[in-house]
Amino acid sequence: MTEARVVVVTGASGGIGRAAAREFGARGDRVALLARGEEGLEAAARDVEEAGGQALPISVDTADHAAVDRAATRAEAELGPIDVWVNDAFTSVFGPFTEIRPEEFRRVTEVTYLGYVHGTRAALDRMLPRDRGTIVQVGSALAYRGIPLQSAYCGAKHAIQGFHEALRCELLHDRSGVRVTMVQMPGVNTPQFDWVLNRLSRKPRPVAPVYQPEIAAKAIAYAADHPRRREYWVGGSTVGTLLANKIAPGLLDRYLARTGYSSQQTKRKRDPGEPVNLWEPADDRAGQDFGAHGRFDRSAKATSPQLWASQHHGLLGAVATGAAGLAGTAIALARRH
User: Cα–Cα distance between 283 and 322 in angstroms, integer?
Assistant: First the structure.
């Protein structure tokens, strides 16, 4: 993209949202940063401006529709008409379903699912009259495949997937110029594993292989530039998980029952005093900024060949077709001789 755009990113104070905000800033975009923690927001704003963009940090709880709508109004008043809206804000609880209290499950759903609904509505209220704009939903392989110890988060991501599909059909029916696309993520090295409510005996971790948040950010920016695709898959593990779930979901149930507990925990014991961001932002403490990266830098992958393949599926299809044609020609010539 050559022209600066106005981009809104929810969950922008840390993790994937933080990396995405920085990625848009590097393009020279004007970025409204929506999150709860003011310490993280201020640091994210510095990241965006140091990268070359313009930042507008807005403290807001995405579970509150009226607050999200006010934030959108402020973003347009100070930055201009919104071109891209990225929904990424979430919270979660690690633990078996029976150990998650009803009010905690509801809170995860309100932030992680309804937060996307509120953000999407705020964006559409402004984009539809102009008949242009793009909404990017940051999803997960868990939008298709639930795993143990993350029932609230998986339920919310499944709900986002269904919401996304229904909305996309409606926009296509109306021949709208507004686009909506979704980016399905693998395990990513983000700070969430140090601030989610943890009911496990050990510290949580993403399921391997783990990718750096910059890969996720580039995928989000690419999706914003190419929103006609219904969704993008990031990481070979995402592809493998979704294909396995289509072919043998029952077998995958049993595999995850055996491996899903150990693969989501480190050997380190849980710290009873660790921060929790379910009800209050963990990055609102004095001097606390978690940034984009978690504690898995040593093992996280900085590249994803699969992401490139997802972005160039048309080219790969043409190459495959051409190769098949050449092979057919070679076989025919061999038979003649």
Answer: 53
